[in-house]
Amino acid sequence: MRGIAASVLVVSIALATAGAGLILHQKLKPAPVPTPAAPVAGLPSGPPDEKTPPVPGPVVATTECADNPRALGVSRIVEVDTTGGPGFGFEHFKQHDFLRDKEVVLTFDDGPWPHNTPAVLAALAAHCLKATFFPIGKHAAWHPEILRQVAEAGHTIGSHTWSHATLSRKSRQDAIREIEMGASAVRLAAGAPTAPFFRFPALRHAPDMLAYLGQRNIAIFSCDMDSFDFTMRKPEQVVRSVMTKLEKHGKGIVLLHDFQRATSQALPELLHQLEANGYRIVHMVPKAPLQTIAQFDEMLSRNNQLAVVSAGHGSTVVRTIREAPH
């Protein structure tokens, strides 16, 4: 995969808050709501039926983990300057090697989804952990109450297109609509600022969209290791997949799916094994929040697409802003 223009990475220990908004470098013409893509294997074509039990209440992140003396906790928080659209994850992008040995970034795709996403949040909260989520826009529109739980727990929220479409098979205009509709849906559903972080469905990177995301100052996430949990039905398979790959690579950005039941069931044991084997969790946060495009925000509201919700060690692209004492 082609590298993306990058900016800066200074290691400093200081708290930082999100800064000024991002500027759109290209004016987009009004466009109709995208036609739903053909069903994707493993993903539903519509929301679950109305008999689905209510979603549990919001997960409250704790800082002491009093009930879990062996909690992993967050070892380090790194801030990402997304100017120019830097790429992360050695499966496709080799420039930013910011993780130290035994450091892990947990990422989850394709949510939010009833039962599974709340179970993932509960497992993370039990270890006082933070992760990065890449929700699908449609799923966020169907289940804003779950995505708000993700936001309220302090996790980083990026986006993953509107309908999990393969952008390399789309026209430029349709691919941009998929990206921006997904980003707007996620932002509106979360009811809170989201990150300018994006992951291509199936990690199929469309070269023209890499350039577009760079213009939008949105970071592109691949991964260092894909768990392939969407091919698994048993929790122990998910745990074995991740731990085997981590043993081989020593560190990395791990791709999981909070949409998958097996993953939600596997996470408590996976986190236990990470702690037992000396791994440390890193939380990635943006220097500035994502600025969605009003055209797409309005398109979602006008078409009733969204439920009403309340409002490398030496680089400077990534910098440590908090680290736990050793």
Describe this structure in words.
With 326 residues, the protein is of the alpha/beta class. The protein has a single domain, classed as Alpha-Beta Barrel (TIM Barrel), CATH 3.20.20.370. The protein has helices at 116-126, 137-142, 144-152, 172-190, 207-215, 235-249, 261-276, 294-302, and strands at 74-80, 87-88, 103-109, 132-134, 156-157, 197-198, 219-221, 225-226, 252-257, 280-286, 318-323. Strands 1, 3, 4, 5, 8, 9, 10 and 11 form an eight-stranded mixed beta sheet that branches. α5 (207-215) links the parallel β6 (197-198) and β7 (219-221). α1 runs parallel beside α7, α4 crosses α8 and α6 packs across α7.
Broad shape: globular
Q: CATH homologous superfamily?
A: Glycoside hydrolase/deacetylase
**H/I helix tally:** 8
Give the helices and strands as they follow along the chain.
Answer: EEEHEHHEHEHEEHEHEHE
Share of residues in strands: 5-15%
CATH topology: TIM Barrel
* CATH level 1 name: Alpha Beta
Number of structural units classed as domains: 1
| Tally of strands | 11
How helical, in percent, are the residues? Answer: 25-40%
Uncertain segments: 1-42, 50-63, 307-314
End-to-end separation in angstroms reads: 37 Å
Major β-sheet, in short? 8 strands, mixed
**Mean of residue pLDDT?**
81
CATH level-two architecture? Alpha-Beta Barrel
Compute the gyration radius: what is it?
Answer: 18 Å
- Strand-pairing-aware structural class: alpha/beta
